[in-house]
Amino acid sequence: MFDTIYPQLIGLCTGALLLTSALMVWRHSLLASIRLLSVQGFALAALVAVIGVEEGETEVIIVSVLVLLVKGIGLPWVLAHETQATTRTDEAPRLNPTAGLLTVALLTILSYVVASRLLAGDSSVSAHAAPIGLAMVLIGFLLLVTRRQAGSQLIGFLVLDNGIATVAFLTSGGVPLFLELGISLDVLLVVVILYVFAGRMRNKFGNTDIDQLRKLHD
Amino acid sequence: MTALEAGMLGQVLLLALAVTGALLVGTRWRSRVIGTLCALLAAAGIVTGAIALFGGEGSLTIPTALPMDPLVLSPDRLGGLVMMVVSAVGVLASLFGIGSARVASASRTSWVSMAVFLFGMQLVPAATDIVSFLLFWEIMTLGSTALLLAHHATRGTVASAIVWYSAMSQLSFFFVLAGFAVLAAATGGTGFSGLATVDPASWQASLAFVLLLLGFGGKAELVPLHVWVPRVLPEAPGHVAAAMSGAMVNIGVYGALLVCVRLLPNGPAWWGVLLMALGGLSALYGILQASVASNLKVLLAYSTTENMGLVFLGLGASVLLRADDATAAADAALVAALLLMVSHAAFKATLFLGAGAIARSTGEMNLDRLGGLGSRMPWTAATFGAAAMGAAALPVTSGFVAEWMLLQALIHGSRVDGEVVSVTASVAMPLAVAVIALTAGLALLTFVKAYGIAFLARPRSPKATQAREVPVIMRVSLVLGALGVIALGLVPGPLAVAIASAVGPAFAPDVRTVGLAGVDARGIDAVLDPTTFVVLAALLLVPVLIALFASARRHPTRTSPLPWAGGGSRLRPRMQYTATSYAEPLVRVFDDVLRPSRDVEVTHVGESRYLVERVHVEQSVSDVIETRFYRPMLNAAQRFGILARRAQNGSIHRYLSYSFVALLSVLIVVSL
User: Which positions, given as ranges, span the membrane (chain A) (predicted)?
Assistant: First the structure.
């Protein structure tokens, strides 16, 4: 029973991941992006859970709970909390939505092409879905390059991180619990530190446009 | 443990003592304690060098975990000779430093760097493999750089001098490293004994030779790698300049000897021609710049370029003649080059110490503002005079013996048994003789100017009027240096024999001691015995002098002050010859090479066209090689830098885009 719906579940989860990533490129509002990031965290947790059930390993299921807590609830909550506490500025990205979505399509195609070369011999379901992870890495990078505000950049960074996690879970069937714990805490720490920096930037310059950060101080 | 090993370990121990001492001892006693320790460190170097020179055996191995030949310190005879020479200069510089180091140059950093500098310099000749050679080479360079930094807080020009020095040091290090790397790649080892198996006729050997020559030439202040010298040495304190110009340049010569005598002996003739061309160019250019310089330290710095040029000229002649099978003359030229190296170390160290003494007493290095120091600083004047005679290659000094021997070798070089050895040699040798002749003439002029303007006549500034003789310890150092110059000139025989044994076993110059410690180069039938000459001259002159004195006593001297002032004594110091006016004819003759810039500014009295209130003349001679060769290169580098800044504008987005594009390119390449 589960074997028959397993490919569909994997497809559903990865589809949700790709969709949320693409929507993040499309939406400019920071809060909307944070909500999408939360949905993406849930989708990633679901993906991990599906893999865990398929392989019958409790450890992976525990990892999925951890992912849910950190990426689905924890990080978006931290981001949303900080964003609401300060004045909101909407993003004016360097790429308009149409061009952004076109680029996303191109990047997805590229990742499928690359993955078809790299995973040529692997015909398992999860290997078929792996290009989505690669596409998320590229989309995250695209967000990093095109967004001006420090907060939006942080979201790009997190999408990139989610992409890496997706590739890891799909190709190797998950990472050990301790490793995942460590990585999650690292990401959490990075986000907190970056947010503190963004807050100080705002206090100092009045906004968080990183284009203004060009000169080094002695 | 052999004596040689004990000597080298002693140097390590004394270095450790000096460094800890410099860090612990307070300001009041620091110079005395650490100066003494540095002098002891250098004395240990002299002893070790002497043991090695007379055939002592022994080695220190530095253990490493790297996959290459072990680092072994074991000076051979040649290394021992060089170690002795640099250590002797080190002793003089340390003793002088005890008295002269003040404020910034007596700081902890300065004394630590001094000890490290001396140590590195003394152990470069002990290296028997590439890695330890480069290790001590860099220790030496770093030590000297830190020493130069002493006065950076009070003088703005120090920073630019340091930048030049560091850049040129790194350039020569790069060339040395590249040259050794070529040899190592050709043989597969890093030990010098292994490198010596390279065939000198192969292209690797030639490439390595050119690279190493550029590297070592940079340290030996050869044109066109000399640009740091006239900037750096004037900024250095006297004893540091003496150690750099008297000792460190010898390490450059040692490197060239290592290549021509140990690693790649019997090279092709064009190597010799290249060495001679480089040396001759340096000699001429150096002495020309020195002859018109009015800053005493710049003058001495350029004179170093000249002397090193002559050393390389001799070395080149030896390579060329050996390639043409004129072995006797080749060996004589090699001995002459080494003699010149040793004597240069003696007189240049003394001259720089003398300049340091002048700087301490007057605070002035511009010859145009000195004068009259002979009566105020008699010890300095006498020792500086002896050393200046050495630098001008006048008889009974060491410089004379060396240049005489070099000329003998060159004159006898182009013919063996009346037959011309080769066309190249018969063209190159007379040209080299002409270069040496011109150089010697200009050197005489230069040092007459340096001594005459600084020590004779009347003081040209209040500072010079108030000059006082330097403390005893500095005088001791000056006298030791001057004695060295005279001793090497009077008894050159033993030194020449020691040099001849040092270049063996591949080379065996036939040099003997003759007469009263004179030198006899049998291969070219040249004999010089200065002591006998002096004794004979004295025997002839003493009766004449006695007769002169006797007649002078009978006719009392008329005393009229300054008869050339038209009977009056209103001669002002400014009416005397200055260094600039003395060199004026030379500047006119060599106008095309020196390209001086002159600025004459006349202030008239009121509305009058004929009455002049004041004339201001300013003349500066720039280094043509710097303005024509280095400046364009630096400008090009700067333009490139400005272009590169457009790519690196500090925007995070731009850097992120670079990585994104790089990642995409990798992915696209993978998927193709």
Answer: 6-26, 33-53, 59-79, 99-119, 125-145, 154-171, 177-198
What ipTM does the predicted assembly reach? 0.85
Element (H, E) at B619: strand B612-621
d(CA B152, nearest CA chain A) in Å: 21
* Residue contact B653–A141, C-beta within 8 A: no
Please name every residue paired with B614 in a beta bridge, in sequence order, or none if there are none: B603
Q: In terms of DSSP H, where are the helices of B491-529?
A: 492-502
Amino acid B536 reads: L
The reply to whether A110 touches chain B by the CB within 8 Å rule is yes
Q: Which value, to the nearest 10 degrees, does the dihedral of the CA atoms of residues B577, B581, B585, B586 take?
A: 110
Contact B651 A214 (CB under 8 A): yes
What DSSP string describes B142-185? HHHHHHHGGGTTT-THHHHHHHHHHHHHHHHHHHHHHHHHHHHH
B671 touches chain A (CB under 8 A): yes
* Confidence label for A59 from pLDDT (cuts 50, 70 and 90): confident
Span B4-30, mean pLDDT?
89
In a domain, A50, yes or no: yes
pLDDT score at B16:
93
Measured between CA atoms, the residue of chain B closest to residue A111 is: B667
8 Å CB contact between B318 and B337: yes
Which residues does chain A have within 8 Å of residue B649's beta carbon, measured at their own beta carbons? Answer: 214
What would the DSSP string read from start to end of B30-67? HHHHHHHHHHHHHHHHHHHHHHHHTT----EEE---SS
- pLDDT for B38 equals 92
Torsion of CA A210, A211, A215, A216, to 10 degrees: 20
CB-CB under 8 Å, A110 with B668 = yes
Q: How far from B248 is each of A167, B162, B259, CA to CA, in Å?
A: 61, 16, 17
Distance CA B290, CA B293 (A): 5
**Neighbour order of strands in the sheet with B526-528:** B511-514, B518-521, B526-528
- Cα gap B2→B7, rounded to integer Å: 9
In this prediction, residue B368 carries a pLDDT of 86
In a domain, A72, yes or no: yes
B165-187 pLDDT, tens digit per residue, is 999 999 999 999 999 999 998 88
Q: Which one of A104, A144, A153 makes the best mutation probe of the B interface by having the most chain B beta carbons within 10 Å?
A: A144
In a domain, A217, yes or no: no
Considering A62-71, B134-143, B156-165, B594-603, the range whose residues carry the highest mean pLDDT is B134-143
CA distance linking residue A134 with residue B657, whole number of Å: 18
B643 touching chain A per CB within 8 A:
no
Q: What is the mean pLDDT of residues B340-366?
A: 91
Q: Does A145 touch chain B (CB under 8 A)?
A: yes
- Parse chain B into domains and list their residue ranges: 625-671
- Per the CB < 8 A criterion, the answer to whether B392 and B446 are in contact is yes
- The domain total for chain A is 1
Whether A172 maps to a domain, the answer reads yes
Within an 8 Å CB–CB cutoff, is residue A94 touching chain B? Answer: yes
Residue A218 pLDDT: 46
Q: Give tens-digit pLDDT for B31-77.
A: 889 999 999 999 999 999 999 988 888 888 888 777 777 788 888 88
Q: How far A73 CA sits from the closest chain B CA (Å)? A: 28
DSSP class of residue B470 equals P
pLDDT digits (tens, 9 = 90+) for B88-105: 999 999 999 988 877 777
Give the residue with greater pLDDT, B316 vs B372: B316
